[in-house]
Every structure is written in structure tokens, then in C-alpha cells.
Design goal:
9 helices, 2 domains, 286 residues, globular, six-stranded antiparallel sheet, alpha+beta, Arc Repressor Mutant, subunit A
Length: 286
Amino acid sequence: MKPRARSAPACVVAAATPHLYVPTAERPVRAKMRKLRADTQVMPHRHPWAQVAISATGVIRLGTERGTYIVPPWRALWIPPGVEHAVTVVEDADMRTLYFHQPAGRFGPDVAPEDDGPWRGCRVLEMSELLRALVREMPCVPDDAPPLPAALRQREQLLSTLILDELRSASAVPLGVDLPRDKRLRQLCEAVLVDPTRHETLADWASGTGASPRTVARLFRHELGRTFTQWRQQVVLARAVALAAGRMPVKQIAAELGYNSPSAFSAMVHRAVGMPPARFLGLQDD
């Protein structure tokens, strides 16, 4: 059975009052919580501050102009200031959002300017058990509520310091799928995202774009800096993560994604991300 093709979202909602959780130099990390049902889409929006999107339960997919990212419960997504993004809920999700104060021209969770390069773009991060616990403990109180008591404000500051430290040491995971600007290539990429197993060859995928396979291959190298096969592999990895969030075993994930054997799928994952599938997918070893 193939993975279910994605349909239009059942419910489209606006971003939930971000203006009531504005981070400041005095409160550099703010947290909010929102429960969202599957097939809900949060409309495209942007903030002048940085953000980390976390799904405590369920799976969310976050899309930007230049990429799409799968965020299961054991990962977090860093979003730099000013990046427009939309959120699609793949499975019922308890979504936690952290907002970060960013001084003008600075990027990252309180990192030195010479080290902020990786934080200038979206990146998927490993979530340590400590980071998950810290996020759960952060108060999610909006600015129109009564002020936090002094003791809780001090606790928030301590939690914020630890969260920033954990984020700086978190490992990045290659789960983002870059998207092109060229309309022909974008059309092809969107089709692959819906069902990466529909065709086997680039020629088959290119047949509906109005461009030759050679032109499409050139566009991939020019716009995305990789071959079609390398790009499609990132789509497969992202889809595998979404399937694993439903506790699907590796053997079944491999079959869903068109692999003839679990060992072939495992070899691809290990080659791509340098870790066993069970660890990458957040599953227990079988």
C-alpha cells in the first residue's frame, strides 16, 4: 500500500496571537502551546523574532518559500527571524512554540556572531530529553494575562538559560527538503512530495513539466545544488520520519517507500545520515 497522497487541509486557521508572546531582552525566551487537529493548516506568517517549532505529540510539517520540513516529537525546527512559514498538521499535535529575542543583525540561540552562520536558515534539531523537559516546564502565559509572580519570572529566566544552552549543543538532522524557484521544477518537486514512489526515473517525473529530462537534471544541479536522486532521497527520509511517528516498524516503512528489503532501506538511511534507522526514526531497535 502506498503512502496516502496529501489532500487540501480540512481546516485553515490563523497564527495564534503571536503578539501576546513577544520576546524581549528581559524575557528572551517565550513559550506558547496550541493543540491542533490533523489536516489543519496554520496560514503563512512571519515574525521579527526567531522561533523553534516543537510537536510534543503528533507530527507537523512546516513549509517556507524555499523548503519543507517534517517535525516529529523527537525533533525541533529552528526558524530565523523574518522567514515566512506555514504549518500543516500531519497527525493531531500538541504544538509548542518558543519565541527568541534576537538583537538586530544577530542569529541563533545567543551564539557569537562568528558562529551564527548555520542559524541563518531553518534547521531541524535533535531534541534531548533535557530540552523536552525544559520546554514542558516553560510557562505559556500571554501578555494580556496577569503578570507572572516574581518567583515564576525567575524560574522562567533559569529555564530560558538552559534552553538556549541545549539548543546551541543540539545536533542538526538533514530532514529539510529544499524547494526551487523555477516553476517547472517546483511543479515536479511538489508532485514528488505528494508521492515519492509514483515514478522510478527522472524521465518519467519530467514528462509532465514541459522540459526535457536533461533540462530538469540541469535545473536540479543549478537551483538545489544536487542531483534529482539526492534530492528525492531527502523526500524519502522525511516521509519515513512521518510514517515512523505512527510507530510503523522499519520493515513496513521500507515497503511503503518502495524498497525491496528492510536491509536496502537501512543501508540508505545509514549512508545518508550516519546512524541506524531505528535511531534516526525515533524507534526502538527491533
